[in-house]
Amino acid sequence: MVRKKILVGLGGLALSFSLVGSAFAAPANPSTDSTINKQLAEVRNATTKYHDVNEALKDGFEPEGESVSVPGLGTMGIHYINYSRMGDGKVEADKPECLLYVPTKDGGGVRLVGVEYIISVDEWVAAGHAGDGTDNPTVFGQEFEGPMDGHGPGEPRHFDKHVWLWEANPTGMFAQFNPMIK
Questions:
Q1: Pick from 97, 99, 92: which is nearest to 82 by CA?
Q2: Whole-angstrom Cα distance, residue 94 to residue 46?
Q3: Closest CA to 156 of 68, 47, 53, 83
Q4: What is the spatial distance between Cα 112 and Cα 25, in angstroms, rounded to a whole number?
Q5: Other Cβ atoms closer than 10 A to 66
């Protein structure tokens, strides 16, 4: 009887630790490449503070419109863009140009689900690339989507790569849309 109580107690303790730790500890979609996992961990570390959207606003991220969704594909979320990062002509893994948020279930706020790397077509061409989709930028070994028009006012024609760091995506960590988010 005592053994049963201890096992039940340990099971409950393990469950509570897993629930508390799951929000920040484990990757949403783990990679099998250890180098990429290390880079993704660095991005998680660099963006953890942005779970508080006020920190994102303080650091120059601006919300751009409503959540971008396409029936049958899912959502991209609400884009919070840091235009000073976007205009620097660089792709730096630990400094994403955009944070992706979705409204909380109660509608009282937003929660961080991922990041997005963006480089304008003009910047890419100025750096000596074709800008026509034949030599797209890459991050984490993944080629950017594009070129494409901006998703909202103020966002230029660009290349981008979504990374679902904080929310699992059944279509893949680097997919544009997440069908699990409504």
A1: 97
A2: 6
A3: 83
A4: 14
A5: 11
Pseudo-torsion of CA 171, 175, 176, 181, nearest 10°?
40
Identify the residue whose tokens are 């984490």. Answer: 140
* Distance between CA atoms of residues 100 and 118, nearest Å: 12
- pLDDT attached to residue 107: 83
Domain boundaries, given as residue ranges, for the chain: 28-163
Question: Residue 66: its pLDDT value, please?
Answer: 84
**Residue 18 bridge partners (DSSP):** none
Residue 15's pLDDT band, with cuts at 50, 70 and 90, is: very low
Of the candidates 176, 168, 65, the one whose C-alpha atom is nearest the C-alpha of residue 117 is: 176
Task: Report the largest interatomic distance among the alpha carbons of the chain, rounded to a whole angstrom.
Answer: 73
For residues 162 and 122, give the distance between their C-alpha atoms in angstroms, rounded to a whole number. Answer: 20
